[in-house]
Amino acid sequence: MEPNLGKPSFLRNILVRLFLFCVFVIALRFAYVVTIRGESCDVGDFCFFALPDNIDVVSGVGEVTKSGVISSSPPSKQKKIPDLWATGGFQKSVQFYSSIFQDLMSEAFLSPNMKTLCVDTATGADVFALRELGVEDSIGISKKGFKPLVVPGQGLKQPFSDSTFDFVFCGGGVVEKSRKLGNFAAEIQRTMKPEGFLVVHTGTNDTYSFESLLGLFNSCKLIRSRDIDGLNSKMPFIREVVLQKFGGEESVEEKSGDSAKKCSVPSYKKDLIKKAEPLIGEEPKKPWITLKRNAQKIKYLASLVDISFKPRYVYVDVGSRSYGSSIVSWFKKQYPKQNKTFEIYAIEADKTFHGDYKLKKGVTLLPYAAWVRNESLFFEINEDPGHKEVEKGRGMGRIQPVQTSGGSTSSGNVDQIQGFDFADWLKHSVTERDYVVMKMDVEGTEFELIPRLFETGAICLIDELFLECHYNRWQKCCPGERSAKYEKTYGQCLDLFTSLRKSGVLVHQWW
Known about the structure:
It holds the Pfam family DUF7870. Keywords: Membrane, Transmembrane, Transmembrane helix. The longest helix has about 30 residues. The protein contains 13 helices and 19 strands. It starts with 5 loop residues before the first helix and ends with a strand. Helix 2 crosses helix 3. The strands form four sheets. The chain has a seven-stranded mixed beta sheet with strand order 5-4-3-6-7-9-8. A hairpin with a 5-residue loop joins strand 1 and strand 2. Helix content is about 30%, strand content about 20%. By secondary structure, it is of the alpha/beta class.
């Protein structure tokens, strides 16, 4: 009789499956520790191997003690360290930052007794370099964290108390990478001590963006700026900016120096006007063609400079008409926004178009007339066949103050609407640090609104203005005849554009 082999075979299969299951569990746990938690398998948490205790991670840079502090003299027993620290890329980064921090120490911006923070540092190479130089009270912050040098958090939402750090470092262009620059800058300044230092590495190389960067950190003053070589090809050029937070009294003086009604356009903005397309000096015989062609020659501000360092991006369409008119057909499709998300304000008094905006996300409708004060107005609809195509059967609207007697003598359709102080609204809606683009098509009211913007200082809040100036232009329908709708001449419009540019406002002739 042959022996019964069924039972041993069954047991052997059970043991094999049990062994494979254990291997699977171990592999799963290892993947969790290394991949999900972002740590190497030296954390003493269900790991089955570790790096040797005496490994030399960064030769000549220093070693990590049990307390996590970098020491130039080898301790008797080292803490187990992440594999990343042994890579060539990490060592190169440490050497780069060590050189940077040594220079800052020589200029007295950094010292070993300072409490320092490195913002949004992915690997902590900058923190490593600081500790190696003896700045022991150094920590980094990043979204995922990387123990023991980097704790979880974000630059725009830090887990630290007010006035914690003497020195803050923002390397690798982290400032311009932030999606919420206003919150980011405010949080940096919150956790800095008064008279503390902030060092920013950025790739910006134009004056406009540099001044915008300084405007972000409005609780700090500029100490110095220099150009240095970058760490790698991703950022070959670096502008290093050193800022110092104001002390208490100095901060108060800075705020009290602001003027409520006066402003002056800085010289760097005036210099940009020299790069703008020239104004049309002679009155065009066919304005409906000439002005449209001229719009194709416009040199947009966002194509000349880097607009990254702005806390907000705002587009104001004064006289927007329908949603698909200039907001969609021009601004959304053609304006170079540099991948920034703009808040959009549509100002339109004609109630015919208000329904277009009810379900539009990201657009705020102001269903009033932009004016020089808050008061009731007549809104007159007057068709002008020589001006432009009529939308939804309506002509272009003009506003005028309500007459106390006699009423309006116009033959057009007249509605009574509410006007609002546009300059005052603008001053309460945006700041000089914001990036503000404006299109104004107000059927002749520009000759009242522009002076009001200058009078209140609100003109300095506008980075770029697209203005349609209305005058008694030649009519398309009737050769040799001018429009009787407007009293102003082309020469007066040209004077308006010229005065705006001379004052430092980047204005374009719109159609």
